[in-house]
What we know:
The chain is an alpha/beta fold. Helix content is about 45%, strand content about 15%.
Amino acid sequence: xxxxxxxxxxxxxxxxxxxxxxxxxxxxxxxxxxxxxxxxxxxxxxxxxxxxxxxxxxxxxxxxxxxxxxxxxxxxxxxxxxxxxxxxxxxxxxxxxxxxxxxxxxxxxxxxxxxxxxxxxxxxxxxxxxxxxxxxxxxxxxxxxxxxxxxxxxxxxxxxxxxxxxxxxxxxxxxxxxxxxxxxxxxxxxxxxxxxxxxxxxxxxxxxxxxxxxxxxxxxxxxxxxxxxxxxxxxxxxxxxxxxxxxx
Length: 248
Ligand code: PGA
């Protein structure tokens, strides 16, 4: 009942030439894919990628959004601007934003709320560091990150988004969580959702992210609470990304 979603987060990678080649490779398969696909290119490449994949079911999003509506916030982009630019989704709370830019749970919750208000689907990224996992704090950390958003937008608000569990130690390291490790955390997340709103818990998509590639995707997707993937590095290679889409 939950349609799978495969999302590509290009981070700060790409160029006009790379987008041209990437889109030419995926356009046919993307038009026929029986799963949902979302792409998160850097802002300046969004329009080109949208044009190149027009007519497919690929949805587009930005990698971040300002928690402010407008004004003197140099370098930031508002939710309303993203909507006007054709975005349907937006990543919030990616661990690279949390760690390199000091984003707090409260700021992430505020971004989730402004994205919802604008009509975007926020993809909430949560996950523990290696030290937190080794300290046995995984469930507590993920629970805290999730509850900050629940408290802000409530169960009905959260249900309009997507959750991406991305253990920080697995991002860009080639060291993916085992399917069982990921499933255990996804199950815990779904339990928190169930406590907030039982209907929402059954329908909300929880993606796994962290070194997903064409070789490990199938085993991850076999887990009952893994509803897709948020793919970084492997999404830059169009053929590798398509392998993951086909697996889903
Ligand atoms: P990765 O990144 O697939 O390169 O590990 C995932 C992410 O950060 O979303």
